[in-house]
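does this look right to u?? nicotinamide-adenine-dinucleotide version
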Amino acid sequence: MLIVPEREIADLMTREAAFDAVEKVFAAMASGDAYNFPVVREAIGHEDALYGFKGGFDRAGLTLGLKAGGYWPNNLDKRGIINHQSTVFLFDPDTGMVKAMVGGNLLTALRTAAASSVSIRHLARKDARVIGMIGAGHQARFQLRAALEQRDFEKVIGWNFHPEMLPNLQEVAEAAGLPFEAVELDGMREADVIVSITSSFDAILGADQVSPGTHVACMGTDTKGKKEVDPQLLVRADVFTDEVAQSVSIGEAQHAVGRGLISEADVAQLGAVINGSHAGRSSDDQITLFDGTGVGLQDLAVAAAVVDLAVERGIAIEVDF
Ligand code: NAD
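got this back:
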């Protein structure tokens, strides 16, 4: 068995490798070559922790495995370690033997940022120049850094429920040589691309605060009850997702579908656009919305990529098992 420890991931994994891995696995999901297993997520009644498993099998990439982990809210205050903790296990699909154990913390941020980036690459207008961020936490930094690589953006605008966190976005924008401006939500009408990544349970962005032709990537809603945008925005938009079953149950579309504003059939897989079986953006005036719920196959895809890189560089630790 190969081990790639968390401490090695930052030097091994690149945004490009994460993008390629996620784009490929989205395509495999849409063509029926890859599927996710039902998600397990439990409040374990210890340390207020949420723990669970996300797994799947990609027949095209021959990647089988799971990500185990969750959220320990007391970690930072009590132990000085981050609250999100996860580890990916990969198995040999021919034998069932364990192949690799990979640190999953940084990979989670990279694969989540890669997902919105893939949506921007395939759905945003080519002439997008202003990117709007809603959310300024840990993931938001990764989201912005990756998104900036997808178009020739000239300006970053941002809004956050906790305005004191906005310097997180400003730092990333300025490191990329772009000006940053904090705006009210009405100011989001200036954006050609909007990425939301918050832990909100109430709609933040109104349906009329988005201009025609904008691409919106909703990345924060990954649990029942969470919500980042007015469900009416999904009525205005062409809606795409990583996985339809998750989108309508735990993603942003849960609310619009639950209220009968749109149906499950109105939600398309982003992978179908990548495959060319869905045309994607229909006009320069159409709003497109990507509901990024986060699937296990994304984790397995980036973990498999990082194992290959670790083997190539002689960094993977090999143990008899
Ligand atoms: P974080 O704690 O670092 O940041 C939380 C963000 O949400 C901040 O911008 C904060 O201001 C905002 N926020 C908190 N309470 C709010 C409220 N009541 N209303 C509006 N905004 C509020 O968290 P993070 O690690 O950046 O994660 C952000 C979200 O992304 C989480 O909900 C997490 O579950 C989700 N996430 C999704 C995926 C995916 O694949 N889709 C992957 C990882 C994380």
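The chain has a mean pLDDT of 97. idk if thats expected tbh
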